[in-house]
């Protein structure tokens, strides 16, 4: 019996030890043949387990070539020791924007410039009179959310069109207080 016949007999015998892989493992592989339905591969280790990467498991934009060596993820190991592989994990890489979002979370929280908030409160006080503590907190929250520039710009665009009926607001507040009594 020739060496090729013995290798073939061994590969097709039931004496083979079970493969140590599990679904989800990533292993190094070599592409051996490419067909329209997928790529035939063999693991690059002592087991040399044959398998297939079905075309549905190859992400868009990934080009494979014969003899190319890459890592693949194991989807399933069949009874005949053939392995189904996937390259879909390549598609799950973080986009640069996700990476930046992660970095942004680690940055120190921006502080609200208190001197500029005080100036805004003074300007609103000249325009409307008394600015309550609740209004001051609301101004600070809005400046923190919008930034000083955008808040000031929005304020300057809104002021000329704002109808000042303080009596109406007073009566609304008085009505709310009356409900508590």
Automatic annotation (TrEMBL):
Molecular function in Gene Ontology: nucleic acid binding
Q: Which InterPro entries match?
A: NA-bd_OB-fold, S1_domain
- Check the record and name the Gene3D superfamilies matching this protein: Nucleic acid-binding proteins
Every copy of the S1 motif domain together lies at 24-88
This chain's protein is named: S1 motif domain-containing protein
